[in-house]
Design goal:
alpha+beta; elongated
Length: 95
């Protein structure tokens, strides 16, 4: 008898530290903050600091496919098998 399995959607957030080096008037170094927030600064460096799990939810395959169609609308016309191959991690693929 085969072991029963389920599909679990796990939501995570990846965190990075991004550094910018912005030239500003000496009297107003806080201008650098506006430059960064407005998207006008070049990235100086970036460092990955981790992945944190926000939530998880058990789903049937049908529910997971429905969510896949929402999250990956460009792939909505694909078959279920194609969606599973592209986006789902099967138990046998886990090392």
């Amino acid at each position: 008898m085969a072991n029963k399995t389920t599909w679990v959607l796990v939501e995570c957030i990846h965190q990075f530290v991004t550094t910018y080096c912005v030239e500003c008037p000496a009297d107003f170094p806080e201008y650098a903050l506006d430059t960064v927030v407005s998207g006008g600064a070049k990235e100086f460096s970036q460092r990955f600091i981790g992945e944190n799990i926000l939530s998880y939810q058990e789903n049937s395959l049908d529910q997971a496919i429905a969510q896949c169609d929402i999250d990956n609308e460009y792939y909505k016309q694909a078959t279920i098998e194609q969606k599973v191959q592209a986006f789902f991690t099967k138990e046998i693929e886990i090392e």
